[in-house]
Write a structure and sequence with these properties.
The chain is mainly α. The protein is built from seven helices and no strands. Helix 4 packs antiparallel against helix 6 and helix 4 packs across helix 7.
Length: 197
């Protein structure tokens, strides 16, 4: 009896990971979703996730959504590396030392009191005002691809390889956005640095 119950539980649990195709989708949503980067998964099957139908409802804002996803993904990838690296290496200066800030998770509050976080806010705000806002407007008007700042010196010349790199960036960015939340949560819960257990 236990064996049968175990097999049934495993079979129903495994069905949660199989892809299903919705019965019907509107043509506008399909067209909008076909323009989205990162709409494939590692199995080679189509993977288009838009349960709130934002691509259909707010189609004029689709370049802005893509720009935001790429930017937040890039920021999250840097944040994951930075969060882990600061458990081992710090930049010079007494206020950044391991004695002043023993755990990475405490750096935000400690540096907010001493001032460097305000400088960081100022620099990010200036970058958004000078670079991001005009780039987002240009992407919305179709003058540039979302996330493309023209830094393609090391990029592959083959368009298929370049598309594969773009898809990898989207998928890795999505993973990093989940990972940084998990790293911060685990660090707060355990009170330890890397590997956060």
């Amino acid at each position: 009896m236990k064996t049968a119950a175990t097999l049934i539980a495993l079979a129903t649990g495994a069905s949660a990971f199989t892809g299903t195709q919705p019965a019907s989708r509107s043509t506008a949503m399909r067209a909008a979703m076909d323009k989205m980067d990162g709409s494939i998964d590692l199995r080679g099957k189509e993977f288009k996730f838009d349960p709130l139908k934002l691509a259909e409802t707010y189609e004029p804002f689709l370049p802005w959504f893509k720009e935001c996803e790429i930017r937040h993904g890039r920021t999250a990838m840097l944040a994951v590396v930075g969060f882990i690296a600061t458990d081992f290496v710090r930049i010079p200066g007494e206020m950044y030392s391991f004695e002043a800030i023993p755990k990475t998770i405490d750096a935000h509050d400690a540096l907010l009191k001493s001032g460097p976080m305000y400088q960081l806010l100022l620099f990010i705000g200036l970058f958004d005002f000078i670079i991001t806002a005009p780039a987002a407007v240009a992407a919305s008007q179709g003058e540039r691809e979302p996330g493309d700042f023209g830094w393609t010196y090391f990029a592959p010349k083959d368009p298929a390889k370049m598309q594969r790199k773009k898809d990898s960036e989207i998928l890795n960015g999505r993973l990093a956005m989940c990972a940084i939340g998990g790293i911060a949560t685990q660090s707060v819960i355990t009170g330890h640095g890397f590997p956060y257990i």
